Structure to design on (483 residues):
């Protein structure tokens, strides 16, 4: 038999065809040109005016299509993020998906007591350590707004805890341009200089405008500072359907797309070719509960349309998954997390955050992060191409089985079962008697035990003492300079 060398195709999910994309893009251009965005930063507004935008009523800026076209032509198709040791590990480009946690939760589930409580500075560090240990968590966000640090400095403390307890790439939040400058200083110490940060960045900044169509001065200034520093940035509208965006999918997408493109125009005018992450968050305001639903299928649908638009624009994309509206890590949390992870992978979004969120983004959970690590692994296994060749077709093995009536004892099975079968790490496939004799532990019990074990035994590669001292000095300087 002639050898066949084939692999199956990767399954994908596409929502928008070319006509849909063209219609949404045109609607977004119309929003920018006719409704405009309210830009509250004077210097940026003047810059837009000099480049051909029309300023109306002092603060409203009508952005013409040619500025959008120019910005799309200069923004890079790929963003490459390194880990903190300078190794390139995340290639944000078409066909590649990476997963990480979310930011700024108010509460956390205490891994020791199981109780919901306010997040603390140490929780940010503990979750960073957990993420460093988990193979399918590619990057980290803070997963906490610590209540035990000065409010004005909360984002600096978050970043310090992340960088001191992990070596993976970081997506960070900040309050203002000063925060960005101080965080860039920390990063320069870790990387060994500003030039190395720009050459091999290990961070990306998450910036939000305020939907609908409001660009606060702080958001714009953070965008500008990232462009100047060469820090990759996403200008990500949180245009929640029914609240800050139209209730209909098409209207919410057109609005959020316009806001993101408006941010791209500003960013590329400051520094053409600076790395920019395209995307938006369109969750749904549940009209019965008045909560923003992270588990709603509508969220996954708008994320998939986001990916289609990003592919059209040839920009790396933002996404969300691995989260739940459940208050605890239960069947609902697992169901919503699996549904969202599966869709993120099929949609081919590049940088996908919010892993580990429960309670609609208000609470973090170590157990949830570990559960999603397992789900990501399972979904990666599902989309892996099936090799079709002489070895995998197993014709000789099938011939032998005519006589033996089975495959369990065949050499082909022994040689290939590890590659052919997915072996879960946390899911239980044992016989009932074995499971019962080992304590009848359910999935949550096993996840909790693993979280405790990682906290007790895992140690991320530490930063040099001089780097730790410099980071602490930045925090102390900020505290001493506060009025």
């Amino acid at each position: 038999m002639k050898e066949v060398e084939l692999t199956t195709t990767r399954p994908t999910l596409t929502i928008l065809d070319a006509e849909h994309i063209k219609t949404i893009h045109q609607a977004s251009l119309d929003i920018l040109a006719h409704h405009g965005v309210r830009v509250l930063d004077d210097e940026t507004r003047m810059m837009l005016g000099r480049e051909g935008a029309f300023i109306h009523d002092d603060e409203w800026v009508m952005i013409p299509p040619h500025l959008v076209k120019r910005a799309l032509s200069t923004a890079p198709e790929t963003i490459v993020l390194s880990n903190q040791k300078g190794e390139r590990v995340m290639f944000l480009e078409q066909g590649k998906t990476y997963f990480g946690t979310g930011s700024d939760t108010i509460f956390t589930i205490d891994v020791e007591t199981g109780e919901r409580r306010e997040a603390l500075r140490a929780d940010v560090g503990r979750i960073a350590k957990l993420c460093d240990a988990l193979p399918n968590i590619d990057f980290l966000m803070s997963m906490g707004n610590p209540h035990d640090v000065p409010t004005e400095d909360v984002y600096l403390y978050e970043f310090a805890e992340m960088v001191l307890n992990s070596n993976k790439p970081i997506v960070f939040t900040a309050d203002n341009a000063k925060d960005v400058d101080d965080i860039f200083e920390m990063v320069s110490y870790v990387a060994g200089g500003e030039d190395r940060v720009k050459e091999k960045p290990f961070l990306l900044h998450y910036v939000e405008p305020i939907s609908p169509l409001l660009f606060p001065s702080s958001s714009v200034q953070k965008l500008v500072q990232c462009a100047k520093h060469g820090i990759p940035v996403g200008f990500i509208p949180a245009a929640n359907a029914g609240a800050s965006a139209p209730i209909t999918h098409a209207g919410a997408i057109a609005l959020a797309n316009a806001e993101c493109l408006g941010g791209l125009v500003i960013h590329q005018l400051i520094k053409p070719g600076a790395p920019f992450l395209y995307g938006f968050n369109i969750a749904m305001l549940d009209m019965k509960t008045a909560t923003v639903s992270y588990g709603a299928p509508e969220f996954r649908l708008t994320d998939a349309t986001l990916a289609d638009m990003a592919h059209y624009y040839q920009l790396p994309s933002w996404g969300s998954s691995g989260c739940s509206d459940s208050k605890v890590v239960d069947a609902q949390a697992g169901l919503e997390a699996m549904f969202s992870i599966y869709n993120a992978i099929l949609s081919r979004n590049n940088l996908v955050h919010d892993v580990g969120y429960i309670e609609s983004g208000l609470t973090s959970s170590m157990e949830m992060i570990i559960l999603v690590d397992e789900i990501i692994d399972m979904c990666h296994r599902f989309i892996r191409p099936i090799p079709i060749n002489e070895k995998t077709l197993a014709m000789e093995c099938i011939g032998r089985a005519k006589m033996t009536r089975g495959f369990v004892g065949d050499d082909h099975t022994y040689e290939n079962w590890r590659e052919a079968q997915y072996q879960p790490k946390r899911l239980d496939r044992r016989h009932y008697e074995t499971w019962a004799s080992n304590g009848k532990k359910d999935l949550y019990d096993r996840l909790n035990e693993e979280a405790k074990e990682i906290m007790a035994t895992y140690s991320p590669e530490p930063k040099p003492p001089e780097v730790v001292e410099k980071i602490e000095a930045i925090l102390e300087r900020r505290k001493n300079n506060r009025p």
